[in-house]
Amino acid sequence: MKIQAAVTHELGKEFSIEEVELNAPKANEVLIKVIATGVCHTDAVARDLGLAPFPVVLGHEGSGIVIKVGDAVETIAEGDHVVLSYSSCGHCENCLSAHPSTCQNFNALNFDGEGYDRLHQHDHNVSTFFGQSSFATYAVVNERNVVKVNKDADLALLGPLGCGIQTGSGTVLNKLKPAFGTSIAVYGCGAVGLSAIMAAKIVGCKHIIAIDVHDSRLELAKELGATLTLNGKNVDVVQEIKKATNGGTHYAVETTGVPPVVRQSLHALRPLGTVAIVGVTPEMQFDVHNDIMAEGKAMVGVIEGDAVPHLFIPELVDYYLAGKFPIDKLVKFYDFKDINQAFEDSKTGVTVKPIVMMG
Question: Engineered SS bond to 132: which of 56, 84, 99, 303, CB 3.0-4.6 Å?
């Protein structure tokens, strides 16, 4: 079928909305009418650094309505409201032990989009991204990527649960699992960091410390549950955290990927503390003895919040409907034709989480 999609033809080029041919779903696939798709930093990285072969249709935080299902699909039906998440194989050791976000085939399934053979234009293949390519009016997706959600929730709002919001909240709820009354610092108050803050409030952390360099984002962090906000341009972050928590936080979530901030997140932990790294971080140096080993600290990498999307995303929707996870305060909606403006506003920080509306 012919669809409209935002095609990226070359490294660093703006999105161009064009007609693309989409194959019918195979036996284990689902055809989705895409309602909306979140703008994620990973899409910008893919566009600007070439994570997937060009030409490509990006987009990996889609939400929509099921139009058709393949003959072998058992868990999804026509008319279901769904969120689209990342691809995983389902049969490697990590998938089978409930850690599909570290699927041994993750990179091939999510970034090497030529193998799907779903999208075509002018007799040439167009790469699929994260197994969904949801910057489009329709998408064909493997059943494993598709998560059924409660129809009582605003479907247009839910796409970012498939990646960014799942990453921040899942890092707290699934990986760190802070006990009631413990302390946590969140470095960077974008969508991922703010989601971590909301999750920390849900589990009852005593100290929830938000660190950023934009006062507007720190204000929002306070509204969403932060008990202390620190502007990294104005204060000694490590000193202020240790003073406020009597020696440092039990946990930290580092979302920025900025080496000096990563180092702060480690130094501001108390002995035996753990920092989860979720930001894309370049090569940097540590004093392993003094920074980590001597005080029994831990630094762990977390992908997609270590979540099983089919279990975790419906939980987040329930928290949202109960008023405990107000993701609507993070977003701004854009028309599909304004997708390049949405990316620019995300880059400059004008909007925390842009969502592109397809209809």
Answer: 84
